[in-house]
Predict the structure.
Amino acid sequence: MAAPLHLWRNARLATLAGPQGWGLVDDGALLVRGDQLHWVGPMSDLPGDLNIAAEHDLGGALVTPGLVDCHTHLVYGGQRALEFEARLNGASYEDIARAGGGIRSTMAATRAASSDALFASAAQRARGFMAEGVTTMEIKSGYGLSEPDEARCLAVARRLGRDLPLSVRTTSLGAHALPPEYEGRPDDYIAAVCRWLPAQHAAGLVDAVDAFCDRIGFTPAQTRRVFEAARDLGLPVKLHAEQLSDQQGAQLAAEFGALSCDHLEHLSPTGVQAMARADTVAVLLPGAYYFLRDSTLPPVQALRDAGVPLAVASDHNPGSCPTGSLRLMLNMACTLFRLTPEEALRGATVNAARALGLHDRGALRAGLCADFAVWALGHPSELAYAFGGNPCLRSVAAGVER
Ligand code: DI6
Ligand code: FE
């Protein structure tokens, strides 16, 4: 028997259902069956003869697709406030990393934490994002940097998706930084990362594979080996590309048909063209740009001109972006990167879903996941306009109110 129908009525919908425009529907309604949207449209067009099991009055509030945060490092131990202080006293992010701090200091705190402790701290952070309308989240490993600790972090991410009303996609990021036991032997470490992948994959822990290709990360040649290992397993790849310098990582990622290239402050015109050809999403991370006080802007206009889809994500992590708000990133994407409010919202819904290889969410349309957020706002442009505070009134994930 089909699941009962739920009617959510009396809303202003921003469906984002077409290729552009907000897709506004005044006096709109949503019919939900199970975990799917069954019908979306103006109340006056609601099909008759329906057996509606329950009705929910949204009081004229704005409804958008559930937000998708397509780039986070949510699972880790400790925090890095002292590193923030050191940077304010003159040290640079790269200096701290080269001196064994940075990602390595979070690695030590992550290895020292139990899986339950990692789950508890990540769940608290996830709940903060969910309270602001996030219904899907990508979570990377990359702070374990050993076979058991990377697997543990991925398993914690999977558990978040099981235990919370949140859809989680996991990404294996063993190639995030060189752990101390491999000091001076980055190629050996990359060989180890490639060896760990089949077991992670067989355990059902991995949806995609990522690497940090940069001066303090790994070279393009090392990144290529990780991508080859992913391809052998049929796993899609994505890349932390051109964040601190141009390594031509975007070209490499495009060669492997990457789902996304992320950061991109130092992306070259050739990199833009390669991404356009490969249909790779550009994930912009304005919070990391802000927190590291970067001054090189990603080439947003060139990406637009080339037709590369733009996404916006939090990059939540303890070193370069300890934010708890994807909505703040929408504001920063506009103020710092000059996205329009509509580009910003598309970037955290439909294009973010695409960056995860998901085509079943990110808009309000019959047949897609019943993921939506209800806002105490009159117009969707207000989502990127105001910063601070939380106008999210309620949210529904996979058809269930959270
Ligand atoms: N780039 C980033 O911004 C994060 N990872 C990466 O490759 C930062 C990670 C950290 O500093 O802990
Ligand atoms: Fe990141």
